[in-house]
Design goal:
Number of helices: 9
Shape: globular
CATH superfamily of the largest domain: Medium-chain alcohol dehydrogenases, catalytic domain
Largest sheet: 7 strands, mixed
Helix content: 25-40%
CATH topology of the largest domain: Quinone Oxidoreductase, Chain A, domain 1
Order of helices and strands: EEEHEEEHEEEHEHEHEEHEHEHEHE
CATH class of the largest domain: Alpha Beta
Bound molecules: NADP nicotinamide-adenine-dinucleotide phosphate, zinc ion
Radius of gyration: 20 Å
Oligomer: single chain
Strand content: 25-35%
Distance between the termini: 19 Å
Length: about 325
């Protein structure tokens, strides 16, 4: 089966049209026709091989909304024509302790859509049906994609850091992930501070639900009018983590979804005397994905997007690199 897609031929290359052979459908597989696909910063880390796991030609795209076109012989729970979403994860072993707990994202055998196959900047792709997620009717196709990676990642990170409601939550970086974190935290009843390097985003943060916006400039230490219970970092940057830790209240948690490029050095006393924690969180398991989609639908967490035709993918990539997308680029084939 031949599939048309947009691929990077080598590290850092612009995407070019390509065609690849997807083979035959396995018993658990589905053929998906792509309707929209968000551009996550992880696609760019993969194009640039920042994590040393990329192989080329690389077809990025892992915030996919599409329709099931064909189903393998064992597929029962999704039907032809059904609208589904796909995030970062392609598959997992489904048998280890992590998988059986519903933490498929922590499975040693977990595979990524674009690290172990070809992604969604394409007309179609073949996917394991067990990692397809029906999209609630209230969420429209053009905006739904960014929930499947950006949305689940921040929802899972906030949940595993202990977010319920009535807490004070800080979000560092108001990009694709950050603008969804602000919405989830605020709409679930928390007091939210954003830390941004962009003046226009500070002005806009209140419309996302933030109660306070701090523009962090140069070497100035970040400040916040309230001590925070949870601080979520979505900026792939090397920041003054000790200064951010000082903003946390006792028992507060600093959690990472973005990876700084250098190792972190912290004076342990900043943790010890206030019993603070540092953690990090990768995407989210299947059960949490369903909770996240239901929560987004119920509480009106809506990705704010800029649409591009798939043929203009390189313009969208340039804009993400320049940090000028507000707040997620979505490619429409
Ligand atoms: N843990 C996971 O499972 C997971 C899942 C998805 C993505 N990620 C990672 O999360 C990070 C954010 O992804 P995203 O799609 O939200 O990216 P994005 O849309 O580019 O947003 C990142 C934001 O971080 C802020 N920032 C500050 N300093 C920066 C710097 N030096 N370089 C880049 N951004 C900087 C900017 O916000 P301001 O303008 O507000 O300062 C920027 O908009 C990426 O590293 C991505 O790989 C992790
Ligand atoms: Zn992603
Ligand atoms: Zn497993």
């Amino acid at each position: 089966m031949k599939i048309s897609a947009m691929a990077a031929a080598q590290r850092g290359a612009a995407l070019q049209p390509c065609e690849y052979d997807a083979g035959n459908l396995g018993p658990h597989d589905c053929l998906i026709e792509v309707a929209a696909c968000g551009l996550c910063h992880s696609d760019i880390h993969m194009i640039d091989d920042d994590w040393r796991i990329s192989s080329y030609p690389l077809v990025p795209g892992h915030e996919i909304i599409g329709r099931v076109e064909e189903t393998g012989s064992s597929v029962k729970h999704v039907k032809r024509g059904e609208r589904i979403g796909i995030g970062w994860q392609r598959s997992s072993c489904l048998q280890c302790d992590d998988c059986l707990r519903g933490d498929e994202n922590l499975c040693d055998g977990n595979q990524g859509v674009i690290s172990h196959g070809h992604g969604g900047f394409a007309e179609r792709l073949v996917m394991d049906s067990r990692f397809l997620f029906p999209i609630p009717e209230g969420i429209t196709t053009d905006v739904a994609g960014p929930l499947l990676c950006g949305g689940i990642t921040v929802f899972a990170a906030l949940r595993t850091a202990g977010m319920t409601s009535g807490q004070r939550v800080g979000v560092i970086g108001v990009g694709g992930l950050g603008h969804l974190a602000v919405q989830f935290a605020a709409k679930l009843g928390n007091w939210v501070t954003v830390f941004t390097t962009s003046d226009d985003k500070a002005e806009f943060a209140a419309r996302l639900g933030a109660h306070e916006a701090v523009v962090v400039a140069g070497d100035e230490p970040p400040r916040s009018s309230r001590r925070l219970d949870i601080l979520l970092n979505t900026a792939p940057a090397n920041l003054d983590w000790a200064a951010y830790l000082k903003l946390l209240d006792s028992d507060g948690t600093l959690t990472f979804v973005a990876l700084p490029s250098t190792a972190m050095q912290l004076p342990v006393e900043l943790l010890l005397f206030k019993r603070r924690r540092v953690m990090a969180s990768p995407i989210g398991g299947r059960a949490l994905m369903r909770d996240m989609l239901r929560t987004a639908d119920t509480f009106g967490v809506v990705p704010l997007i800029e649409k591009f035709p798939l043929g203009e993918i390189n313009t969208a990539i340039r804009k993400v690199r320049e940090n000028t997308v507000r707040y997620r680029a979505v490619l429409m084939p």
